[in-house]
Amino acid sequence: MSWIQTGSTITFLPYTLEEALRGVSEAGFENVEIGAVKDFLEHLDPDDLSPEVIDHTKELLARYNLRVVSLSGHAPIHTELGFTRLASVIRAADELGCVVVNTFTGDAETPEERATFTENVRSLADDAQSRGLRLCIETDSNMLPTAEEGVRLLDEIGHPWVLMNYDPGNVVYYTGASPEQDIKHALGRLGHVHLKDKRGGKGTLDFPALGEGDIDIPSILADIAGSGFDGPVSMEVEFTDYNWPAWDECLEAAKRGKTYWDGLGIG
Predict the structure, then answer these.
(1) Residue 129 CB coordination number (10 Å)
(2) How confident is the model at residue 1, as a pLDDT?
(3) Is the pTM of this model over 0.70?
(4) Architecture of domain 4-264
């Protein structure tokens, strides 16, 4: 397989880090992406990444035979607090042996906020590069809603270590655009992928197991494979209206998604 097949802990969002890692492992994954997003996906708390927390995380990863390849540390990095949080996540990712740290733009709006965002991204990317980590910005909300817009933003940032984290489900949710077409703009600028299916159009929160939504997952994976991308492709399931079910049902959804993915034989 050309990419690193990965399962995200977001599929088990309401549960503890240990429960999430156990679920990802039992679903059949060998690699994991861990969420470290304040007030949303706190399997790791970006404000508490002490040596004790890192050591405990390593123990859990070993217990469930998982390698952590990416951390999602989405933070409003045009703010001082967001910058500090993502810098902390980058340090933790280095200590855990990851290859990617993901973030989003954080919805900087004014020219001053956008200028600060760009300056902070470059600084954080310098730090990430010194540690051998790619810094990836997700297709999410106002500044990078699609890959087509994202290419322009990456050009504006102008740092070779900053790449895109492509999420086809988000592209539909935020813009209603076709991810099957939009993904083509991302090829060559990808550092990470959130492989997420979706039902319904723009503004509909419905992200089922892979193969159970409306997105042409085989087409997207074929384009990614054809580009030679070799980074993490991380499967996410976020259910309907962000209402996660019981842990066992989360596990079944993860298993269905991975079975569907494996059955495609792409990559």
Answers:
(1) 15
(2) 55
(3) yes
(4) Alpha-Beta Barrel (3.20)
